[in-house]
C-alpha cells in the first residue's frame, strides 16, 4: 500500500483526480508500516519482513517526504531565496508598537530574492507603502496585476530583465516567470501559487471531526464532499504544473528556480513532474518533514523550491519563527555549481 501510494504521484490528476489524492495519506501509511514492524516482532516474527519490504520499495518516496542531509554551511557569496505565502501580508495586522511585523521580517531576512504568494496588501496597508519599504531596503520590484489571476510579487536585489505570466486555466491562482541577471547569466525564476483547495473554515471543521470520530453519522457524507472539492482543485493543478514545466523547457535557460505554494505534498503529481526536470532543494539540503502549512490539524509541506543542475543548494529549511501567516516561509541558499563554471 505504501509503495502504491507513492506511485500515485505519477498519475495526472486531470485524468485520475481522486487517485491522485492518495499521496496525502503517505505519512499515515508510513506510520502504519512502522507500527506493523513492532506488531509482528511481538506476535509473529516470521511476518516482520512484510512492512520492511514495503518500506524498502518506497525508500525514495520516504526520502522525498522526510530527507536527512549532513548540514553544510552556505558559502558567504551564496544567494538567499525566500518564498512565502503571506496570507495577504498577515491581513495588514500591526503589533503593539504600531508596526507591520511581517514587513519587518521580510526586510530583516536580507534575502536576495523574495517570492510572495497572497502578497496583496489589504485596504489598511497600501501596496505603494509596501513597495516603498522594499525599495529602501534595496530591492527591485516587479508585480503583475493584469486582472486575470492573483497578482504575483517578486522582490529581487538582482536586476530584473523581464516579467511574464504563464498562461493556464485558473480563476484566482497563477505563476509569474521572471528573468534575473546573475553575473553574466540569465536566471529564470518562476513564482507559483497553484490551484488552492479553497477549503472553508466549515470544511476544515468537518475534516477535524472525521479524524476525531470516523464513526460519526455525518462522516461519510462529509468525506465525500471534501474529496469532491479537493479532487476538483487537484484536477486543475495537473495542467498548471505541466504548463510551468513546458515554459521552463522552452526557455532553454540553464539557471532555473521554480518555487512557491504548490498546494501539493512531496508525494504528488506536481512534485513528481517538477522532479523529472529539476531537483527539490529540500530533498537536496533540507532535513525532516519541513511542514510549511501550520494550521492545527493540517500539517503538510506544500511550499517547495526546485532548481536546475546549475545550482547547488544549502541549508534549505522552513522558518518557524515567522508566525504571521497560515504558512511558514521556506528559505534556501543558492550558489552556481562548480561544474557550471
TrEMBL record:
Entry's transmembrane regions: 20-40, 47-63
Gene Ontology MF terms in the entry: endonuclease activity; exonuclease activity; metal ion binding
InterPro entries linked to this entry: Endo/exonu/phosph_ase_sf, Endo/exonuclease/phosphatase, TDP2-like
Record-annotated Endonuclease/exonuclease/phosphatase domain positions: 82-327
Keyword annotations from UniProtKB, A to Z: DNA damage, DNA repair, Endonuclease, Exonuclease, Hydrolase, Magnesium, Membrane, Metal-binding, Nuclease, Transmembrane, Transmembrane helix
Transmembrane helix is among the record's keywords: yes
Cofactor: Mg(2+); Mn(2+)
Pfam families documented for this protein: Exo_endo_phos
Coiled-coil ranges from the UniProt annotation: none
Keyword Repressor: no
GO biological process terms on file: DNA repair
PANTHER family: TRAF AND TNF RECEPTOR-ASSOCIATED PROTEIN, TYROSYL-DNA PHOSPHODIESTERASE 2
Entry protein name: Endonuclease/Exonuclease/phosphatase family protein
Organism expressing this protein natively: Paraprevotella clara
Amino acid at each position: 500500500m505504501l509503495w502504491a501510494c507513492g506511485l500515485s504521484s505519477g498519475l495526472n490528476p486531470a485524468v485520475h483526480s481522486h487517485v491522485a489524492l492518495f499521496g496525502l495519506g503517505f505519512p499515515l501509511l508510513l506510520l502504519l508500516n512502522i507500527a506493523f514492524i513492532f506488531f509482528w516482532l511481538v506476535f509473529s516474527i516470521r511476518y516482520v519482513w512484510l512492512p520492511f519490504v514495503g518500506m524498502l520499495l518506497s525508500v525514495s518516496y520516504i526520502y522525498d517526504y522526510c530527507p536527512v542531509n549532513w548540514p553544510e554551511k552556505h558559502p558567504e557569496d551564496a544567494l538567499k531565496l525566500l518564498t512565502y505565502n503571506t496570507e495577504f501580508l498577515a491581513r495588514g495586522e500591526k503589533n503593539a508598537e504600531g508596526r507591520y511585523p511581517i514587513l519587518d521580517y521580510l526586510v530583516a531576512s536580507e534575502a536576495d530574492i523574495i517570492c510572495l504568494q497572497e502578497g496583496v496588501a489589504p485596504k489598511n496597508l497600501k501596496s505603494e507603502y509596501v513597495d516603498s519599504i522594499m525599495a529602501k531596503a534595496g530591492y527591485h520590484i516587479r508585480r503583475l496585476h493584469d486582472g486575470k489571476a492573483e497578482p504575483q510579487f517578486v522582490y529581487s536585489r538582482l536586476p530584473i530583465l523581464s516579467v511574464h505570466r504563464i498562461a493556464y486555466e485558473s480563476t484566482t491562482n497563477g505563476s509569474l516567470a521572471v528573468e534575473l541577471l546573475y553575473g553574466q547569466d540569465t536566471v529564470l525564476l518562476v513564482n507559483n501559487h497553484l490551484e488552492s483547495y479553497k477549503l472553508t473554515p466549515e470544511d476544515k471543521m468537518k475534516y477535524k471531526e472525521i479524524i476525531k470520530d470516523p464513526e460519526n453519522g455525518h462522516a461519510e457524507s462529509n468525506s465525500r464532499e471534501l474529496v469532491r472539492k479537493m479532487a476538483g482543485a487537484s484536477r486543475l493543478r495537473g495542467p498548471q504544473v505541466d504548463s510551468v514545466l513546458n515554459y521552463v523547457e522552452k526557455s532553454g535557460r540553464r539557471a532555473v528556480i521554480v518555487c512557491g505554494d504548490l498546494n501539493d505534498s512531496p508525494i504528488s503529481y506536481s512534485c513528481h513532474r517538477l522532479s523529472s526536470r529539476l531537483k527539490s532543494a529540500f530533498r537536496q539540503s533540507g532535513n525532516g518533514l519541513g511542514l510549511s502549512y501550520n494550521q492545527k490539524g493540517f500539517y503538510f509541506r506544500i511550499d517547495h523550491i526546485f532548481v536546475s543542475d546549475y545550482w547547488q543548494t544549502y541549508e534549505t529549511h522552513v522558518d518557524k519563527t515567522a508566525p504571521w501567516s497560515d504558512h511558514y516561509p521556506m528559505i534556501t541558499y543558492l550558489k552556481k555549481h562548480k561544474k557550471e563554471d
